[in-house]
């Protein structure tokens, strides 16, 4: 008879921390859905670039896995998604439309910068997650690899680097979102 090995237990404090971090990651995926959807819409409406719209919709479909993984992990941790998800989605949708209105290279540059910032953010979560929380770590590791691939694909498709001021503004907005989502 084989023995099954149960996953290591998390203390209440570790479970709460992992839940808060996964809630932030879930919000990030809600925002990714909004960004990619609005940028695809903008590619069609503003510049009539069907190939770009399809590229963005494919990235959105890949992000759907991340959304499902983080939602499932929140349930496993007996935690909840952000209660402000409609606000996060609406804000990200508007930002995505603005980025797409600026043209193909800027819209793809926005994807590149977003994914690079998300990659760094996920690295920080790997540093903070409890070492024995293998399930959360596996999700974050895979998400990080996928985000890097999305940034590389946007770069290969003609994305250009955004101005430093825009990058700083994006980082500031992300800090607000992650700080609030960590708690609510």
Provide a descriptive summary of the structure in words.
This protein is mainly alpha-helical and 184 residues long. The protein is 79% helix and 0% strand. It has six helices and no strands. The protein has helices at 12-45, 50-76, 85-101, 104-128, 134-156, 164-183. Helix 1 (12-45) packs antiparallel against helix 2 (50-76), helix 3 runs antiparallel to helix 4 and helix 4 (104-128) runs antiparallel to helix 5 (134-156). The protein is elongated, with a radius of gyration of 17 Å. The termini are far apart.
- Overall geometry comes to elongated
Radius of gyration based on Cα positions = 17 Å
H/E element sequence: HHHHHH
Main sheet characteristics: none
Structural class: mainly alpha
The proportion of residues in beta strands is under 5%
Tell me, rounded to a whole number, the average pLDDT. 89
The total strand number stands at: 0
The end-to-end distance, rounded to whole angstroms, is: 46 Å
How many separate helices? 6
Low-confidence stretches: 1-6
